[in-house]
Write a structure and sequence with these properties.
The chain is built from two helices and four strands, in the order ααββββ. The protein is an alpha+beta fold. It has two domains: about 35 residues; about 45 residues.
Length: about 80
């Protein structure tokens, strides 16, 4: 095999992997719904506030909880009605 043929095969394989990555990211929500099982705990939504803090909306047995996670580890939990 010459070097041109090896480069072409490598580029083709990388292209296929990038296409698979694109399709998985594009359809991530559908994949999550398809693989969802009947569990008591569900992370409904995650929002990043800044570089160190996130807000999570978590469902547990039909009840929703708002959880704030920060860099220093302090979490604030509030039951959503």
């Amino acid at each position: 095999m010459d070097i041109g043929h090896q480069i072409a095969i490598t580029v083709a394989i990388i292209g296929i992997l990038l296409l698979i990555l694109y399709l998985v990211r594009k359809n991530a929500d559908k994949i999550k719904v398809f693989s969802k099982k009947n569990t008591l705990l569900e992370v409904k939504e995650t929002v990043r506030i800044d570089a160190y803090s996130k807000v999570f909306l978590i469902g547990v047995s039909g009840h929703d909880f708002l959880v704030v996670s920060s860099k220093n580890g302090q979490n604030i939990i509030r039951v959503m009605r």
